[in-house]
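User: Predict the full complex structure for these chains.
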Amino acid sequence: MPKTEIRVGGLGGQGVILCGIIIGKAAALHDGKHATLIQAFGPEARGSACSAQVTVDESAIGYPYVKQPDILILMSPDAYKQFIKQLKPGGLVLYESDLIKVGRELPEGAKALGIPATRFAEELGRRLVLNIVMTGFFAGTTELLSYQAVEKAVVDSVPKGTEELNLKAFKKGYEYGRQLVAAKSA
Amino acid sequence: MKADPKGVLTGVHFMDGDHAACEGALAAGCRFAAGYPITPSTEVVERFASRIPLIGGVFIQLEDEIASSIAIQGAVWAGKKAMTVTSGPGLSLMMEHVGLAAITETPCVFVDVQRGGPSTGLPTLPAQGDMMQVKWGSHGDYEIIALSPNSPQECFDLMIKAFNLAEIYRAPVFFMMDEVVGHMTERVHIPEASAIEIVERRWTKKRPGEYRVYESGADLVPEMVKAGDAYRIHVTGLTHDEKGYPVMNAAAQGKMVQRLMDKIRLRKDELVDVRREALEGAEIVVVSFGITSRVAGRAIAEARRKGVKVGHLRLVVAWPFPSAVIQDLAKRVKAFVVPELNMGQMALEVERAAFGRAPVVSVPHAGGTVHEPQAILDKILEAAR
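Assistant: Here is the predicted structure of the two-chain assembly.
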């Protein structure tokens, strides 16, 4: 696996950082890779722009910043506007399709895959788990990390007592991602 | 002695630098922390406050940094290992008590997660602008020790070292993180307690009546007692003699200050901790510390691809400054390049040590983010020309 740079973007309160932490944790603790996560947030705890930068590599990571992500995981229109231009040509953008409309800004050769993550989360009973739906979607569409590794990282990252709901959210996103990839390649 | 297993969270974690620094302190035996929360250091004490009741110890959120930096010294004289945690604006307030820790030889750790300054500056964004402040910030002459981690793993490992050095030298030790290292999350391996070496305070074996609180032997570091342990001790910020009593004359001042300096200066070589990479045959040597070392790494790799022989010297212990290492390199390199997230503070030290034998190219940055690797690369190429 070559070095993969990921940026997760959205609003404070959507679980953007946690999504990044789960990906990093899955890679660094459960998949034998190296991962570095950098987070940026505004002074406000909720509602401000929020993003996480995750680098995953087979060897130790030096420079920790993500300048030109291979993968974008976006949960708000503002994050889309802010980060879409950074995407590497031929890169992949995973987006919340009820909130974000993908237009012509996509770089050359880039792929965009959407998921109505908030709606799925609401159907599962709590809108709060939209970030875990997105995490599952990431795992299913990219297969960068093993299913088991990400699943394990979800379980040890979410609050105790919410594991079952979060695993459902993770599976929902994962399966939707697998189906979407299969449909596109068919 | 080995670490107390109660404070050691053995395992492999995905943890940020602030949390790892806290775990390092707990593993080192720190059982008292006082602080006034300030971004980007708050997570250190937040974690300490939640962990310490289960381990046995105290965290106090005080009214300000002035109180915090004196409370830890009270705890140390009561027998505990202690730290305070802050960022630039808080550090400025603590300066009076840094001097007190130096003159009373109180072993304690000041954690500074650096952000952009001066003043309130950039609360959530990185800088490395406090390097000279920790060296010179309090009035008068004294020596301090400062460490500079560049990853969460080092925040853990070097924090243990920071506490150990504080005990060995009985001097304030500064743990110079920055916002990026503090908020960066990576794998952190915390070993078994039995694999962690801890330096115990050097308690005196002398009996009350024989013991003098500032009497020292060959290494110039006095032995300690706990307040309340039947020894009569006097600890003061005034110039004092071996008994700790104030003596207001030049002779006492000369003797005391000389010892405060010498206990570190004469043992500087033992304190050198640098990471050397490809220095053999290097024409350019990049000198860096903290997060900037990782940014410089990218520029160095690029310069090597362009055929420049670049070596990398990373300061793990920034103070005392490893002058002898620079002096030696200065005889054989073409130039030093010193990137740092300040307007050229440690570059002055490199210049001083190089003593005109090799030019020093500063790569300043006011902070708020890290350097563009290109900016460092440009200076390397320019210096190599």
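The helical segments of chain A are 16-30, 77-83, 117-124, 130-142, 147-155, 163-185.
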